[in-house]
């Protein structure tokens, strides 16, 4: 049998292209709505049909500007309908959409713009001062496109070749046939947050993006259907908003974009007004929303499900959302290099009869692999470790939407025997549920043993007086490193160091107990809403622990 050529299937060989998603939504869910809180201050609404029309006008505009296949076109924009149009027009026409995080330092912005060799950059008008600052340093950008109408154009600006998005579109017809090409062609480019060294680019293909979109809509994953109204709170510059700009249109759901207004009050009001059923974001955003709802004694009338990921969802947050607000919480884990989804939480049928506290422990894990992602944990020698829910090791992954190499070969060969090392440390239980114990570089090494910081932070945050907590290793003469807990108190709380340390009693091994607690006004948060532990470690590098 091995010598014989396989009998080939006789189905259409249609490439998996991103343009096909919007084309499908516009044809089969033509009247599903896209609602956007604009940076202009008002609410904009239209349908997938109109989105498709404008995306084709933009594709024609890009052609008129001389953009070629494979060239990078950047965006610096909040979540909104014009950004969505760029998602489809740029990738759909064969160019590569490079989403840039506006929260990066201007020097880093210019660095990645040059590294990507961006040809044009589309930006929300609120970023005009930022563009003015970086434009002279972005050597490859031929034109800057302000995502707005002519009335938003500055009267005089030093930005060379500044263009108006609405004028560009108005000059074009919607008569455009999406080109058909190899599904492995590059579609979007996203740089890692780069806490150490320069950021590196993850270059997604049409195929990887479409497969990720299919898989992420599944019931075990995000469970998106045409009856949902989905609000991507996670920014479109953070790993393509976890794929929602693709998975939502292919599901035919309504989309609700919050724009720049991500404070608790704005998110709550938009959710209620547009009857949002499902949302996705990092824990820091939910903290703002929950605080606003609790302080104002509000409930959600339509919001029933959310995915929380990007960093560990504190159990206290999960409990509040489920028990006090009736919102189902799906814990998700992934990374820029994984498009980003790798695992999502949920229960198996055998878990349905378990007591609530037992079920919660399962839901608090980072979750089960999604079809398309394989994972394993290994020791320092690369030997695979058992799935017993207790042994922790380095987490490796592989699959069709996982990075094979960084853009321009940066970092060299990153795979280990065909697997991508995530840099996370995790356990996997016999049912395949993975739990992150730490990021390898955040783990505290005390006397040759490892202390996982996520557990310590979750316990601290289960104290009613604690709003946020981060645990870091600080140098120790005898043990190399010992844990220091940095805490932000809730408004009005007077919780003390001693009370907090007592709160750990019986919940962890004695030698894991933090050596000290310090109180801070706030914690340093990076561009994607994650606590920057490297900054904290710098800040407390000389900290004298009590002996
Ligand atoms: P990024 O590429 O910026 O999205 O960061 C990816 C990293 O975020 C992962 O490697 C994890 O360390 C962390 N991360 C993402 N989701 C979770 C989660 N649910 N729990 C714990 N860590 C997470």
Structure description:
The chain has 547 residues and is an alpha/beta fold. Among the domains are: 13-206, Rossmann fold; 442-539, 2-Layer Sandwich (GMP Synthetase, Chain A, domain 3), CATH 3.30.300.30. Helix 1 (18-28) runs antiparallel to helix 2. The protein is globular, with a radius of gyration of 24 Å. The mean pLDDT is 95. The structure holds adenosine monophosphate. Adenosine monophosphate binds next to strand 14, strand 19 and strand 20.
Strand order of the largest sheet: 2-1-11-10-12-13-14-15-16-20-19-18-17
Quote the distance from N terminus to C terminus: 71 Å
How many strands, what sense, and barrel or not for the largest sheet? 13 strands, mixed
Tell me the CATH topology of the domain at 13-206.
Rossmann fold
Q: Please report the first level of CATH classification, the CATH class of the domain at 13-206.
A: Alpha Beta
Helix fraction, binned, reads 25-40%
Regions with little confidence, pLDDT below 50 for 5+ residues: none
Structural class: alpha/beta
Judging by the overall fold, what is the CATH architecture of the domain at 13-206?
A: 3-Layer(aba) Sandwich
Oligomer: single chain
What is the averaged pLDDT score?
95
Indicate the overall shape: globular
CATH H-level name of the domain at 13-206... which superfamily?
ANL, N-terminal domain
Number of strands: 25
Bound molecules: adenosine monophosphate
Backbone CA Rg? 24 Å
Give the number of helices: 16
Fraction of residues in β-strands: 15-25%
């Amino acid at each position: 049998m091995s010598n014989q050529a396989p009998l080939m299937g006789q189905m259409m060989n249609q490439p998996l292209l991103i343009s096909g998603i919007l084309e499908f939504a516009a044809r089969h869910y033509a009247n599903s709505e896209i609602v956007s809180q604009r940076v202009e201050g008002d609410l904009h609404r239209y349908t997938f049909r109109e989105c498709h029309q404008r995306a084709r006008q933009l594709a024609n505009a890009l052609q008129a500007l001389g953009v070629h296949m494979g060239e990078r076109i950047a965006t610096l924009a909040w979540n909104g309908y014009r950004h969505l149009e760029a998602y489809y027009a740029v990738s759909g026409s064969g160019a590569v959409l490079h989403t840039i995080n506006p929260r990066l330092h201007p020097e880093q912005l210019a660095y990645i713009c040059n590294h990507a060799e961006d040809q044009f950059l589309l930006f929300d008008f609120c970023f005009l001062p930022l563009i003015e600052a970086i434009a002279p340093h972005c050597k490859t950008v031929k034109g800057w496109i302000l995502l707005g109408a002519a009335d938003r154009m500055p009267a005089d600006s030093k930005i060379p070749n500044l263009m108006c998005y609405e004028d560009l579109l108005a000059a074009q017809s919607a008569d455009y046939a999406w080109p058909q090409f190899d599904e492995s062609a590059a579609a979007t480019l996203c740089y890692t947050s780069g806490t150490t060294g320069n950021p590196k680019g993850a270059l997604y293909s049409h195929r990887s993006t479409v497969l990720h979109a299919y898989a992420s809509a599944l019931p075990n994953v995000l469970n998106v259907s045409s009856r949902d109204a989905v609000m991507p709170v996670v920014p479109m510059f953070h790993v393509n908003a976890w794929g929602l700009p693709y998975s939502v249109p292919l599901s035919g759901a309504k989309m609700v974009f919050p724009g720049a207004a991500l404070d608790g009050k704005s998110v709550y009001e938009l959710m209620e007004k547009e009857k949002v059923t499902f949302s996705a974001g990092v824990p820091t955003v939910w903290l703002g929303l929950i605080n606003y709802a609790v302080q104002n004694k509000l409930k959600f009338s339509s919001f029933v499900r959310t995915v929380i990921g990007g960093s560990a969802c504190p159990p206290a947050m999960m409990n509040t959302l489920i028990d006090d607000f009736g919102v189902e919480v799906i814990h998700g884990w992934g990374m820029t290099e994984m498009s980003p989804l790798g695992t999502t939480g949920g229960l198996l049928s055998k878990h349905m009869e378990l007591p609530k506290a037992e079920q919660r422990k399962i839901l608090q894990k980072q979750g089960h692999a999604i079809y398309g992602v394989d994972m394993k944990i290994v020791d320092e020698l690369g030997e695979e470790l058992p799935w017993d829910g207790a042994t922790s090791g380095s987490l490796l992954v592989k699959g069709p939407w996982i990075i094979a190499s960084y853009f321009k070969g940066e970092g060299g060969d990153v795979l280990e025997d065909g697997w991508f090392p995530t840099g996370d440390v995790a356990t996997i239980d016999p049912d395949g549920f993975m739990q992150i114990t730490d990021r390898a570089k955040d783990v505290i090494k005390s006397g040759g043993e490892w202390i996982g910081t996520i557990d310590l932070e979750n316990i601290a945050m289960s104290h009613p007086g604690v709003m946020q907590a981060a645990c870091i290793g600080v140098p120790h003469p005898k043990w190399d490193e010992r844990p220091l807990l940095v805490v932000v108190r809730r408004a009005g709380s007077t919780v003390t160091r001693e009370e907090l340390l007592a709160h750990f009693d019986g919940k962890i091994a004695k030698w894991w107990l933090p050596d000290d607690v310090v109180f801070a006004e706030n914690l340093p948060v990076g561009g994607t809403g994650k606590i920057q532990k490297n900054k904290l470690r710098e800040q407390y590098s000389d900290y004298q622990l009590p002996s």
